[in-house]
Write a structure and sequence with these properties.
heterodimer, A: FAD/NAD(P)-binding domain, Immunoglobulin-like, 5-stranded parallel beta sheet, 7 helices, 30 strands, B: alpha+beta, CPE0013-like fold, 5-stranded mixed beta sheet, 3-stranded antiparallel beta sheet, 10 strands, binds iron/sulfur cluster
């Protein structure tokens, strides 16, 4: 086998499609019983505008990818767990119904995606009660298994999945009392604030959080209240809300347990350092999607998967890929950023999140303005920049986002 | 009367202010960076519409639910009625992505189509 892909979400499927089109032998390992990842349960629309030039729902996007891949049985192995990767001997140890199998691919693509942060990580006082779910779990219950988590729900966190679940649970007949967001601004896309909350008269409480969880076995209620600019609770603002369900959308964490001990890791992205070929610091291992950094749009994840698939296939075919020549370094106001390295041999897309919201701003590469934004940019909306001209760039490029007057 | 809204036609998200007279007629739209903002605000005032995404119960399928959507935007003020109607539906597997479940749902001109293929259970 030439190329092995780990993970069958949008990034993994796209990588497999591209590698297959390049004429190499490719195998995709999926932990679940079928591929598609989170697309399966994201029945809302808004996917595919960049890639397919139309507005699709998650399942439609997923089925498009399946059709693009063609014969699924030839490429996909479901119910496979990857136990370990030996990066020196280039071996991948897996567990499945067939027992332990060791693969020795020429190139490997990591497309393991992200997992949800749990509410426990917020350390809210109160007993551990039933009735507390992450947004993704609630979404799976409702959209795949036809089960409602409860009757009356508060959503914690206004990330996109939280907003979408507020609407979804309302449509399914739950009493959605509101969404609390600890930050002064919504965490998700504006479009979702409008279409999920405003359309359905669901309140959004900004600079608010849950102070305490009540109930012994089953959740009975929560105390919410306001926080100051340092995110400390403001006494006297407490309000008791009776709910039997809490749905937490408090962030996603890239999953990199299989490789984080031997690849260079970017502590801000919480994913592997990659270059414009989606190559990690280990030359036969590529990575794409939410395991590299958390993205907003599946379209971007798909595009990364395609890049990883193409170059992993070329590498497997024995082609000598160009070496990294330039490095991006974070300067002022730069949060999530990828890639961190590039070869300077091809145009590529760079993704950035500013650390704070800015009304007017510019992106600067080592003193040179690359792009100006005349509208508000926010940490919650990833910026994509097309980089085509490397001529005057130093080997180490300092990336900054500055507010302008 | 002024009405504030956020244009969602592109990620910029302009904050629009729409001036209305006492009959609800639009006098002025401000805050848009491009003409699409005017179009958006006009639609939102005169006849706001949304694509509804939802799920429908499936009998004898490998899944209990099929995801579905209206193939055109439907009037926002009729969403609840349409949701109630869809909640009572049951369809029979197998179904294919793109199959029309309900034509011209409640006279809105939009069809309800499934967005997922659900095979028959053996
Ligand atoms: S008015 Fe134009 S620029 Fe502003 S959000 Fe709407 S579409 Fe985008």
């Amino acid at each position: 086998m030439d190329v092995l892909v780990i993970g069958g979400g949008a990034a993994g499927l796209a990588a497999a499609i591209e590698a297959k089109n390049m004429g190499v032998k490719v195998l995709l390992l999926e932990r679940d019983r079928s591929t598609g990842g989170v697309l399966n349960q994201c029945i809302h629309n808004g996917f595919g505008l960049h890639v397919f030039k139309k507005e699709l729902t998650g399942p439609e996007f997923m089925e498009y990818l399946w059709e693009e891949l063609g014969d699924l049985d030839e490429v996909i192995r479901s119910n496979y767990t990857v136990l370990k990767i030996d990066h020196i001997n280039r071996e991948v140890f897996t567990l499945s119904e067939e027992g332990i199998i060791v693969f020795e691919p020429k190139a490997l693509i990591m497309a393991t995606g992200a997992r949800e942060r749990s509410l426990n990580s917020l350390r809210i006082p109160g007993a551990r009660v039933t009735g507390v779910y992450t947004a993704g779990v609630a979404q799976k219950m409702v959209n795949i298994y036809n089960r409602l988590p409860g009757k009356r729900v508060l959503i914690i966190g206004s990330g996109d999945i939280g907003l979408i679940m507020a609407r979804r649970l309302k449509i399914e007949g739950m009493d959605v009392v509101g969404v609390v967001e600890i930050m002064p601004e919504p965490g998700g896309l504006i479009r979702n604030v409008v279409q999920c909350l405003e359309d359905f008269n669901i309140p959004l409480w900004l600079s608010h959080t849950v102070f305490e969880i009540h109930g012994n076995e089953r959740l009975e209620g929560v105390t919410i209240g306001k926080v100051d600019e340092n995110l400390n609770m403001i006494p006297g603002t407490e309000k008791y809300i009776k709910v039997d369900t809490l749905v937490a959308s408090v962030g996603l964490i890239p999953q990199n347990e299989l490789i984080e001990n031997f690849v260079d890791v970017d502590q801000v992205n919480r994913g592997p350092v990659i270059d414009d070929f989606m190559r990690t610091s280990v030359e036969w291992i590529f990575a794409a999607g939410n395991n590299v950094a958390i993205h907003d749009l599946v379209d971007f994840v798909y595009e990364e998967g395609k890049i990883a698939g193409k170059f992993a296939a070329l590498y497997a075919l024995g082609e000598k890929l160009p070496e990294v020549k330039y490095e991006f370094k974070r300067g002022k106001n730069v949060g999530v950023m990828l890639p961190q390295r590039f070869t300077g041999t091809q145009p590529f897309k760079m993704y950035l999140r500013p650390r704070k919201s800015m009304s007017k701003s510019e992106v600067i590469f080592s003193g040179k303005t690359i792009r100006k934004f005349g509208w508000k940019i926010r940490p919650s909306e990833m910026i994509d920049l097309k980089i085509t001209n490397f001529e005057q760039l130093p080997k180490e490029v300092i990336v900054e986002v500055n507010e302008i007057g | 009367m002024d009405k504030k809204m956020t244009c969602i036609s592109c990620p910029i998200g302009c904050e629009l202010t729409v001036q209305l007279d006492e009959n609800g007629k639009i006098l002025k739209i401000e805050g848009n960076r491009c003409p699409r903002g005017v179009e958006y605000a006009t639609h939102e005032i005169i006849d706001p519409k949304r694509v509804l995404t939802i799920s429908v119960k499936v009998e004898n399928g490998v899944m209990e639910l099929a995801s579905a959507k209206t193939d055109k935007p439907v009037p926002k003020n009729r969403l609840n009625e349409i949701i109630d109607f869809i909640k009572k539906l049951k369809i029979e597997a197998p179904i294919k992505r793109g199959d029309v479940i309900v034509e011209d749902i409640l006279g809105t001109g939009a069809n309800l189509v499934v967005t997922r293929t659900v095979k028959k259970r053996n």
